[in-house]
Amino acid sequence: MNIPLVSVCISAYNVAPYLSQAIEGILIQKTSFPFEIVIGEDCSSDDTRRICLDYKEQYPDLIHLVLHDQNVGVLKNNVSIVKQARGKYLAWCDGDDYWVDEQKLQIQYEILESHSDVALVHTDWIDFYQETGIYNNRKIIQNQTEKGSFGIDCINMLVSQKDTGCRMSSAMFRKVYFEEALNKNPELFLGLGHANSDFRIFIAMYERGRFYHIQKFTTVYRIQKESLSFTQNEEKRFRYAMGYFKLIAHIIKFYDLPSEVKNMACKRVLNGLLLRTFKYQKKEDALSIKEICNSLDYKLTKSRLLLYWGSVNNSFHFLLKPLFANKFKSKKNGNIKVLRFVSKDYFGFNDAILEFENAIVENGNELIESHVINRKLFYRRIIYSLDKRNIIKSIGIFKKNQYFSILMGPERILDYYTPFIFNKHKSIYLFDAWLDKHIYIEQLIKNLKVENVFFSSKTSTNIFKEKKYLDAKFHWIPEAIDIRCYKFKDYKEKDIDILAFGRNYNKLHQLIVEELHNKGYIYRYSDGGKKMFPTKSDFIEGLSRTKISLCFPQSMTHPEIQSLETMTVRYLQSMASKCLVVGKMPEEMKELFDYIPVIDLDMNDPMDRLEEILNNFNDYIPLIEKNYQNACKFHTWKNRWEQIVSIINEKE
Question: If you write DSSP's letter for every residue of 600-651 in order, what string do you get?
Fold first, then answer.
């Protein structure tokens, strides 16, 4: 057998339910070069070893096992795997992760072969939350490490920011760099009490070369309720964080990193550690933290020094406990209160908003319905509150909460609900943030001191990120759907050939309506402003019976107004109903899908194209099914809300 050029390394400990999926994702790889699979089995207590032996028996020349008689831990297991690997390059896949692209190894191998300055090549990945079954695409924004930087600058960045924008199971790297780093700094890979080895490998690779990012989803990263890096156990979380602090301290000293990096890294880690040593009076751990700080010549701030003294001295703990009491209150998703603003023309009854609100409420958050009042009444309400001396009490209550609201337009927000005005922590989600609305959005952010603004449009997000004079943070969270609200007919039962709902594209309509009618095709569209479907249930039924759904961005349907291209909910509603989406794909959808989900319609001869699609409709069913699965996994409001909650709670 040829010597392998790539070794795929699997670290396996108590991963019996998932290991076969990891191995099968490797076995499907199509390569022009030989590769091997090296599995390090760390004396598991479940059936992991039996599964390893079964696969070894099936693929004796491909799979090599490193079997430990006793549990040696993640770090030593990983080093033992690398020592047995024969490949020039190492591709990692943890035993509970898996690959979904059969070209992953081939693409990454070609990059490393053709780019001698690249130390590690990685891809986009998909987070899979095992407990909830939710998938989340994780596209990576290119950073300086992709553009050519490496060495100490990148190590500084990693240590001070922690997040690499990379998952080890999506990566391939040069074995020789790992071996050099292991010989040079063995403590980095074999000690320091922090179980996660990814960070160490990234440090070693940053020192020798740059990272290369491939914009392609190849890997599913499984997030379990209980694992090394994700756990509900307070003590395990503390031990993990303590190990990380020791690791960071070692790297700072070994590479003699600058004081600003040291200060930033310590600041990020120490608050959580000292709060826990204070809360549970972990005297020995507090002393250990102080010793590490001294070795780094890092001085604790006054508040951290108080936490330290309260951790090591019972009398100080008793005196200081009331001072830090608020720090120990649980910060769960349910602490975010969602305001629904209601008026006679309440735009909250838009389908997208209602589906979004349902996902929020199901997640345990409180939905507060407030009636819009005009500005005079708003001021009267304030005066009334002041007269009753309730306003100070109200402000005190509101400051403890995170308030969130979903808006279709910001012009009237100042007329809205008192808690949103006075509460310190405010976040909003904006649909339809068209260019002509930006002046109102900017005014809203300034006047209400909004902390987080979530746009459904990527273009609007990028525009506001450039407005450095605004204090808010801006995030792109695309529109989504509640997949449960939609249904679909069997393809043979779909009796509406073409449906145009939402914004009418009059130019296209005029080109096709007469000919479709003459040829006997069923074409449904909004006629003279009349509703095609009187109720939402009628709409869902009609969409389920549709073969082709025409979808175009507002930049095409209404070119006369200032608009931009964005993925509106119509695209996803069509996918959820198993319609073929035909029209124009907004540019931002290229980042949300790793394939082309929309059939482009040539406006020079749209009728011929539509007829050709209808005559060969069965050829498009695989694409329809793929779109449906994608919408179910990645584009639900449940997904989006989890992202929003994570961002809002980042500071806490």
Answer: E--TTSHHHHHHHHHHTGGGGHHHHHHHHHHHHHH-BHHHHHHHHHHHHGGG
